[in-house]
Amino acid sequence: MSELLLSVLRIGFLIALWWFVLTVVSVLRRDLQAPRDAKPLTPARTVQRPSPRATLRARKTSTQLVIVEGALRGTVVPLGSSPIVIGRASDATIVLDDDFVSTHHARLTPNGNHWIVEDLGSTNGTYIDKTRVSTPTVFKPGTQLRIGKTSMELSS
Amino acid sequence: MTETLNRYRVSTRRSAELVLLVGAWLIGVFAWILVDSATGESSFGGWTSLLSAGLLLLIAHGVVRWQAPYADPLLLPSVAALNMLGLAMIHRLDIAATQRAISNGSPMPTPDVYLQLTWMLLGLVAFILILIFVTDHRRLQRFTFTAGFAGIVLLFIPLLPFIGSEINGARLWINILGFSFQPGELAKVALTIFFAGFLVSRRHSLALIHNKILGVGVPRAKDLGPLILVWLAALLVLILERDLGTSLLLFGLFIVMLYVATGRRSWVLIGATLLTVGGGLAYLAFGHVRVRFDVWLDPFADANGSGFQIVQSLYGFANGGIFGTGWGQGYPQLVPFAKTDFITSALGEELGLMGLIAILLLFAIVVERGARAAVATRDPFGNLLAIGLTAVIGLQTFIVIGGVTRLVPLTGLTTPFLSYGGSSLVANYIIIAMLIRISNAARAPEVSDADLVMRQDDRDD
C-alpha cells in the first residue's frame, strides 16, 4: 500500500474514533437536558395538583433522628410525617430512661421541610446546641438537640 | 387523558444504544482491517472473530432491552468500543509475535486474540446472567457478609498449593482445566458489595458518633471493626501475593466508600496519611517496592535493566507523537507485556496522543455514567454500590495508565476492557452489568402509567 493511502487511513481512523466519542458525548448531553426539555410539556394542571413525582420527592426529604449521646447511643429513629414526643412516659415515641427527663419532655413536629422543637414544660429544659428552647424552635440538621443525658441529631 | 400520560413517558434511548453499539463494533472492524492491511497478514480468519464479537454485543443489547429497559444507554457502547480496540491491538501484537518467530526460526506462538474472544464471550454471558438473575440490586444487600467472606477466600485461593501458580514473581493465578484465572479480579466485586452493605447499615453511627482519643474523633470499634478486619485481611493476603496494584485499588476503594458513606472529609486526609505511611514502610521493607519506586523516579538510571519496560514504553509514546504511527506501523511489541499491563503504551504509539485522549474520554464517560447512576438511585445501598463499582473502574484505569505514563509508580494491573486477560474482562463486564441494573432502577419512572391512571381517577371523584 502506498504511503499516502496509509496516512490517509491513519488520520481517517482517528477521525472515526473521535466521531464515535463525540456522538456518545452528544447523547450524554441530550440525556442531561431531557428533564429540562420535558418541563414545558407539563402544563398548569400539575400546578393545581402536585405530580406523583413531587409528592415522592417531598416524602424523601423527611429525615432520621440519630441518637449520638446517652444510653440509646447509636439508635436511628426514622421520622415520618407525624409529630413525635420524647419523654420518660411509656407512651412517648422515644422513651428515655433518665432521671433528668420529664414524663412528656419535648415534642418534634414536622412543618414543611423543617422539624420544630417544643419544650412541653420540662423541669430540666430542652437544649439546641447550648441554647435552652423556650419557644418552638426550628431544629436544623447539623445542630444537636439535648434532653437530659441524651443528645440527638437530624440526618437525611 | 392519554395525552397527559404521554408526558410522563420517559425516553429510554435504547435505539441510541443500538446505534452506538454498531458504531463501536465498526470502529473495531476498521482497526482490524488497518492492522491486516499494514502488516500484510490476513490469514487469521479475523472475520469470524469480528462477526462473533458483534453478534455477542447485539445479544447483550437485546438482553438489556428485555431486562433493563430504562438503563443507561452509554455504558455498554463505551465499554464495547474499548473492548473492540483491545481486541484489535491484541491481534496486532499477535502478528508481531508471529513475524518475530518467523525471523528467529523459533516455534510459532499461538495467537492470544482467540482466547481473549473466548473470555469476551464468557464476560458477556456473565453480564447477561447478572441482568437476568439480579432483577433488583437491593437483594444483594442480603449477601453483605457472604460477599465479604467470598472476597477474602477468592483473594486467598492462589496461595494454596497445587492450584495456585506464580507468574512473574506474583502469585495471583489459579489453574483449572488449563485455564489460568485471577480470582482477585472477582474479589474486588465481592468486596465492593461487602463494603456497600456494611457501610449502609452503619453510616449514621460512623458519621455522628465518636469516642475522643487525643482530641481526635474515632468511630466506635463496633461500627468500624468488621470493616477494618476484612480490609486488613485483604491487604495481608495481597502483600503475601506481592500484588501491589490490587492492594492500592482496594485501599482507594475503601477510602472512597467511607467518604461517600459518611460525607466526612477527614477520611480522605486519614487515607492520604495512611497511604504515605504505608508506602514508606513498604519501601523500606520490600525490595520489589523499592525497585518500582526508584524506576519511577529515574527510569533511565538502569535503562537496560529494571527501567527497561518503562523506558521502552516512553519511547513508544514519543514515537507515536500526536497522531500516532498508524495501526501496525509502530513497534509496540518492543515493550515487555505490551498485551497486558502496557497495552496503553501500544495504543499510544500507534494511535498517538489523539487516540489515547479518545480512549481516556471513553473511560471518563463510563465513570461519569456510573457516578450518575449512583447519585440518581433512590436507595442508599444502591448509591454506595454504584459509586464503589465506578470507583473500581476509575481507580484501576488511573493506577495502570498513570503507571505506564510514569505519573505514579508502576504497580501492575490490567487496563479495564483493553488488556489481554480473561479474569479482568469477566469481572469488568460483571461490574458494568451491575451498574446497568442500578441505572435501570434510577431511571425508571417512579410511577407506572397504570398507577397514574388510578391516582387521577381517585382525584377526579
Provide a descriptive summary of the structure in words.
The complex is a heterodimer of chains A (156) and B (461). Chain A has helices spanning 3-38, 45-48, 52-60, and strands at 64-69, 76-78, 84-87, 94-95, 106-111, 114-119, 126-128, 131-132, 137-139, 144-147, 150-155. Chain A is an alpha+beta fold. Chain B is mainly alpha-helical and 461 residues long. Chain B has one domain (2-459). In chain B, strand 2 (170-176) and strand 3 form a beta hairpin. The longest helix of chain B is centred in the last third of the chain and has 34 residues, at 343-376. The radius of gyration of chain B is 23 Å and the shape is globular. Chain B starts with a helix and ends with a helix. Chain A binds chain B through residues 1, 6-7, 9-11, 13-14, 16-18, 20-21, 23-25, 27-28, 31, 34, 38, 41-42, 45, 49, 52-53, 56, 60, 64, 66, 68, 73-74, 76, 153, 155, and chain B through 4, 7, 11, 13, 16, 20, 23-24, 26-27, 30-31, 34, 37-38, 73-74, 77-78, 81, 204-205, 207-209, 220, 222-223, 323-327, 329, 351-352, 354-355, 358, 361-362, 365, 368-369, 378, 446-447, 451-452, 455, 459.
